[in-house]
Write a structure and sequence with these properties.
The complex is a heterodimer of chains A (110) and B (123).
Chain A: E1 9-12, E2 18-23, E3 35-40, E4 47-50, E5 64-69, E6 72-77, E7 86-93, E8 99-101, E9 105-109
Parallel strand pairs in A: 1-9
Antiparallel strand pairs in A: 2-6, 3-4, 3-7, 5-6, 7-8, 7-9
Chain B: E1 3-7, E2 11-12, E3 18-25, E4 34-41, E5 48-54, E6 59-61, E7 69-74, E8 79-84, E9 93-101, H1 102-105, E10 112-113, E11 117-121
Parallel strand pairs in B: 2-11
Antiparallel strand pairs in B: 1-3, 3-8, 4-5, 4-9, 5-6, 7-8, 9-10, 9-11
The chains are: A mainly beta (110), B mainly beta (123).
Chain lengths: 110, 123
């Protein structure tokens, strides 16, 4: 089963909004509302930012939002801050009863 | 306060079996909706799902590694054990265990993670 497709890198200036896409198929992203997004700083464990497409765990800023259209999920970060510079990964449950991750996106805050 | 910690060998030889233990606190794996999963990350590469076990002993495995993986739980010890057979240098990486809860992170979101355990496969 192939990994979900994410752009290798995105960038934005402080205060701007950016969107990271996560493209799968009708057997994973398109099949369920079980997409999660993680932020990972270098040398650290991942941190859950969004689950079930659009839900934020307790304590996560509302600057982070998730959505989905067809086979593509998206993570939007508004009011970009220097601390948002990190790697971001999406994941999805699949019709094969497993979980797959995306290849990761490096966000640079200019 | 939920915490998880991975333990096991840091170095294994090719063809050997890796056994990793996740010891957790702050929750019970007998509580409805709760699960513990394993995710790994080769150096400078992406995250990869390995396995997940739920409170009711339901399990999920990576399709590509399913034949080599086993996940079990010991509720009385607050532990989850992952075994990966026939280790190869490409299995080198950081292995994480992580908590999921239907009511706080969905069935497939992991909201608490261990610090990770680096495993190197080399002869």
């Amino acid at each position: 089963q192939s990994a979900l497709t994410q752009p290798a890198s995105v960038s934005g200036s402080p205060g701007q909004s950016i969107t990271i896409s996560c493209t799968g198929t009708s057997s994973d992203v398109g099949a369920y509302n079980f997409v999660s997004w993680y932020q990972q700083h270098p040398g650290k464990a991942p941190k859950l930012m969004i689950y079930d497409v659009r839900h934020r765990p307790s304590g996560i800023s509302n600057r982070f939002s998730g959505s989905k259209s067809g086979n593509t999920a998206s993570l939007t970060i508004s009011g970009l801050q220097a601390e948002d510079e990190s790697d971001y990964y999406c994941s999805s449950y699949t019709m094969s009863n497993t979980v797959i991750f995306g290849g990761g996106t490096k966000l640079t805050v200019l | 306060q939920i915490t998880l910690k991975e333990s096991g060998p840091t170095l294994v030889k090719p063809t050997q079996t890796l056994t990793l233990t996740c010891t957790f606190s702050g929750f019970s794996l007998s509580t409805s909706g709760v699960g513990v999963g394993w995710i790994r990350q080769p150096p400078r590469k992406a995250l990869e799902f390995l396995a997940l076990i739920y409170w009711n002993d339901d399990k999920r495995y990576s399709l590509s590694l399913k034949n080599r993986l086993t996940i079990t739980k010991d509720t009385s010890k607050n532990q989850v054990v992952l075994t990966l057979t026939n280790m190869d240098p490409v299995d080198t990486g950081t292995y994480y265990c992580a908590h999921s809860d239907l009511y706080s992170s969905g069935y497939y979101g992991n909201d608490y993670w261990g610090q990770g355990a680096l495993v190197t496969v080399s002869s």
